[in-house]
Amino acid sequence: MPYGLSYTRAKVFRRQMTPPEARLWVRLRAARLNGVKFRRQHPVGPYILDFYCAWVKLAVEVDGASHLSEEQAAHDRRRTAWLATQGIRVIRLRASDVRDEIGGVMDFILACVRERVPDGYHPVAPS
Q1: What angle separates helix 19-28 from helix 102-116, to the nearest 10 degrees?
Q2: Residue 125 has pLDDT above 50, yes or no
Q3: Model confidence over 74-104: pLDDT tens digits?
Q4: Which of 12, 46, 48, 127 is deepest in the core (most CB within 10 A)?
Q5: Are 36 and 30 in contact (CB under 8 A)?
Q6: φ, ψ dihedrals at 9, nearest 5°
Q7: What is the pLDDT of residue 53?
Q8: Ramachandran bin of 89, using left for φ above 0, alpha for ψ from -120 to 50, beta for the remaining angles
Q9: Distance CA 62, CA 52 (A)
Q10: CA angle, corner 49, sides to 123 and 87, nearest 5?
């Protein structure tokens, strides 16, 4: 996909977030997760990541029911493998968990960020 097209698609996706994505974005935007900055609908190569923290190369994907099909699961595995070649870790969250267990979801994301913080650099405050 040409470079400009992924940015155009990302812009459209930002306006069409699902309710679970919007719920999570309220808690991630403006560095609300212990000062850690996330971007939403961020293009990387041929893919658009739901949420991305460039500092620690962490992608957060919110998966709804469509991700339960074998075809979609296979696509997700290929996508995750490609992103890993770029040094990006992908964590997948069920939309129902974002809806029903947002506190636990935020704790999990913060723990994943902390695992990827460069050695000797710990500006993320303990919760």
Answers
A1: 60
A2: no
A3: 999 999 999 999 999 999 999 999 999 999 9
A4: 48
A5: no
A6: -65, -40
A7: 96
A8: beta
A9: 12
A10: 60
For 49-53, the CB contacts below 8 A with 24+ separation are 49/83, 49/88, 49/90, 50/21, 51/24, 51/25, 52/88, 53/113
State yes or no: pLDDT of 127 exceeds 50: no
Single out the residue of 35, 43, 15 nearest to residue 123, CA to CA: 35
**Domains of the chain by start residue, with CATH:** 3-116 (3.40.960.10)
* Contact predicate 62/50, CB 8 Å: yes
Retrieve residue 92's tokens: 């997948």
The answer for residues whose C-beta is within 8 angstroms of residue 52's C-beta and 6 or more apart is 38, 39, 42, 44, 58, 59, 60, 88
What is the token pair recorded at 89? 């870790």
| The token pair that represents 115 in the structure block | 């695992």
Q: Encoding tokens for residue 26?
A: 């309220």
What is the average pLDDT score of the chain?
Answer: 85
Q: What is the largest CA-CA distance in the chain?
A: 42
